[in-house]
Amino acid sequence: MDSMGRSSVRLLVAVGLLLLRFNWCLAVDGGGVAEVGGAFPMVVSTWPFREAVRAAWEVVSASDGGGSAVDAVVAGCSACEVLRCDGTVGPGGSPDENGETTLDALIMNGATMEIGAVAAMRYVKDGIKAAKLVMDHSLHTLLVGEKATDFAISMGLPGPINLSSPESLEKWANWRQNHCQPNFWKNVAPAGSCGPYRPINLAQALDSVKHEVEGSQGGVCQDWFQSDNLLEPINSHLKFIDRHNHDTISMAVIDKMGHIAVGTSTNGATFKIPGRVGDGPIPGSSSYGDDEVGACGASGDGDIMMRFLPCYQVVESMRRGMEPQDAARDAISRIARKYPDFVGAVFAVNRKGVHAGACHGWTFQYSVMNSSMHDVEVITVYP
Fold first, then answer.
1. Is 92 in the same domain as 145?
2. Which of 46, 88, 101, 248 is catalytic?
């Protein structure tokens, strides 16, 4: 072969390699996925919230080019709010100590890293839409309480609306009849069975009771003072957390262009202290997403999990090269080392569409749908 022929071969090989590289990049970035057998678009959600996933899928997979990841997240979380998924999302569930339902929600655009969130929002039923309005029409990230309500209504959402339901009020009435137990107070003494409460020094209280009993009875078993029998009336707490009293929908969407968005919506912990904000509207705790890396969603004991920002941890671990499964396990194990009794879970999905989950203290399920599936698939993750 002469030199001209060899040059032609080299040129053809170079062009071929360039095209292969281009197709690989398309597969990773999500553009032109259909041509290279990718799995985008994609929707992932905590729990078997199939209808929510289908609502998001309908938007992001539309034949006219598909909606954006952000629009799909809004559609999916809104569906869960309307359906009142597990009684822990949207209006009508999880009454606080006053019997009122309030909403927390967050949305994040992984392309721009913009975030909108509302917390302890009253009288507006559309949590995720309110969060998107904060992102779209303000330079803020988080609005709270009645001022979040005022903002949402001024931007066109219906309200004011009573967010309680007959079911939530009945649940609250039964709880009151049970002397407001269990609850989220600690190291307090109630004026009555349901408060008001005042703070106490637990060590001083135990010492005072010990001296009174010893003085009247001439001695007492030391073990008795260290038991839960004495602590329980002044240090009450919820002993059992599950998806029906302490849950969130957390959703991640990758659209046809490879852009990522995440969102959460919740009505918070049942019988929470009024004003409590959980991990739902906290960026990096309930959810986090970055086009360059991937996304994460979380569910569980938000008061514990928000101390660790597990979803931020998951995404940053994947940024450093961890696979989704290892990143999810690492984030959960970090919490478990400090709080062995905590209950929670995360799912992780990287920008290639590889997904995994990890949990502690309960069996967790998350839902997935992508272009290779005929319908939503539910993945079960064991502790």
1. yes
2. 248
